[in-house]
Amino acid sequence: MKKIITLFAVILACISAPAWAQAVPQSRTDIQMSFAPLVKKTSPAVVNIYAKRVVRERMRVISPFFNDPFFGQFFGHGFGGGQVQERIENSLGSGVIVDATGQIATNTHVIKGATEITVVLSDGREFDAEKVLVDEKTDLAILRIDPKGEVLTALPLADSDAIEVGDLVLAIGNPFGVGQTVTSGIVSATARTGMGAMDYRYFIQTDAAINPGNSGGALIDLQGRLIGINTMIFTRDGGSLGIGFAVPSSMVRTVIAAAGRGDRFVRPWTGLAGQPVTSDMMASLGLTRARGTLVNRVHPKGPGAKAGIRVGDVILSLNGHDIQDPEALKFRLATVPLGSPIRLMVSRAGKSFESVMKAEAPPENPPRQTAAIKDNSPLSGATLVNISPAVAEEIGLSDDLTGVVVTAVENGTPAARLGIRRGDIVQVLNGADIPAMKNLHEALGASKNIRRWQVQVRRGAQVMNLMITL
């Protein structure tokens, strides 16, 4: 049936073509269309990734009394069948060789928490892989394998901003662990925002079939270039519904560059925060349609403030790229290298002007002071640090916050049992305000002989007052 349709299309083309261009197909080759040459060229650059991680689980507790901290002090927290057991969990995904020397791009969720990563090439060769850079906010990770002097097939990166809706694409990966699989489709949408749980939600949408196991695989154009890393799907039953999403290659290129420098992925800081422009707002803002990002907060010492941006301004474009909403603004900012210019087209009361600033890293002000709490207190087992714009960017907080924030909590400790989480801000401890780490140390020192503790914690917009007896 497909051959008949293809032949019919060729006949129609010949009929509609000018007389000098009409030709009758002379062989089956003349009417055959295939992606096979493209697949042979690109598929060796797509790998399977097998990740092993240790999962710690607490066994069923026989009696609720065994979870009480009082009993735990005398009998140990594993008493009564509540001990923690470890088991090995295996997961699979895909990756893309982006450098012939052995650099591989994949999704963070494919290798998150992995203690052992194995990369299997399309020809069956296996290599141990090491993590070079892991960035949860973009869900991108860079791995490295040692090909022992052999040159690997790598995919060049396309300009993802040049693709258009309707362009033909191929998705290559390892769905459900069945082995390397190629599916075809088109670009269904570009600059798709608001999907997924990561911080940077800006995707290429495609109807090429993507299923579990395809994560980290390649979305390529018909020139064999990487235009995106397949990341997630919209699904109701776990299978493909023709709505898949890929992280654009422009973001992949930025993460690769950070891995090449040997540091973590540092995003430019503007000191600006914004919200979407709705149809109810556009008239009062002097706009003819709902687009851009409405600035609702300006850090007084940030680059945005120095460049003259004010609350109420609307950011319309960044370095020539249209900004439809705050997600698009975050994405475009993240792809600007540090030290490069950021050119914003801004609308203020219906009049547009350009504002220029330099992409700079968020500052460590106040200086970073980290402390792992080990004494007998409700915060024991938590690691805390002074909040600065740099710390706020790492954890995902607003850059205008001050105080002391939790960066990690060790399992099985008093802080973990109290429910303290990463990102919690400790505001008050036993009646003492905690604006900085030195205040926390002073409050802990003054509470050594106290059994009843009061802790005030801010989590997002919620403030919790906790009373604990040790």
Which percent band covers the strand fraction? 35-45%
Q: Which stretches are poorly predicted, pLDDT < 50 over at least 5 residues?
A: 1-17, 61-81
Treating each run of at least 4 consecutive H or I residues as one helix, how many helices? Answer: 12
Helix content: 10-25%
CATH topology of the largest domain: Thrombin, subunit H
Return the domain count. Answer: 3
Averaged pLDDT: 86
Radius of gyration: 27 Å
CATH architectural designation of the largest domain: Beta Barrel
Largest β-sheet summary: 7 strands, antiparallel
CATH class of the largest domain reads Mainly Beta
Q: What does this entry look like structurally?
A:
- The protein has 470 residues and is of the alpha+beta class.
- The protein folds into three domains: 32-265, Beta Barrel (Thrombin, subunit H), CATH 2.40.10; 272-358, Pdz3 Domain (Roll), CATH 2.30.42; 370-469, PDZ domain (Pdz3 Domain, Roll), CATH 2.30.42.
- Helix content is 19%, strand content 36%.
- It has twelve helices and 25 strands.
- The chain has helices at 2-16, 28-31, 36-42, 69-75, 108-111, 249-261, 279-282, 303-306, 326-334, 389-395, 414-418, 437-446, and strands at 46-58, 84-99, 103-107, 114-120, 126-135, 140-145, 168-173, 181-193, 202-206, 218-220, 226-233, 244-248, 272-276, 293-298, 314-318, 321-322, 341-348, 351-358, 370-372, 382-386, 404-409, 425-429, 432-433, 452-459, 462-469.
- The strands form four sheets. Strands 19, 20, 21, 22, 23, 24 and 25 form a seven-stranded antiparallel beta sheet that branches. A six-stranded antiparallel beta barrel has the order 1-2-3-6-5-4.
- β8 and β9 (202-206) form a beta hairpin.
- The protein is globular.
- Residues 1-17 and 61-81 have low confidence and may be disordered.
